[in-house]
Amino acid sequence: xxxxxxLATSPDERVRKPRGAKSWLTNAAxxxxxxxxxxLDTLAAAYASQNQFDRAAETASQAVDYAARLGQATLxxxxxxxxxxxxxxxxxxSFRR
Length: 97
Prior knowledge:
The structure is a single chain. This protein is mainly alpha-helical. 64% of the residues lie in helices and 0% in strands. The protein starts with a helix and ends in a 10-residue tail after the last helix.
């Protein structure tokens, strides 16, 4: 099975399945997961991939907050860059993670 990150952000449209990523994340979510910045980052990317940019920005903003609280400054900066894309109506595509 492909990772939710790849499903949400793959530049290959045959691979990118944001609904599949959201479904996986939603079904896997337990209350602690929603406090995980990487979980929220992936969910935000899936929203953006479906052109739900307001929801993506809101979710990414939460991810930045949690990453900062956990002392994960590098991750917070990475998510902030994606957040700026979502605010301008753009998604994020990558094979990384």
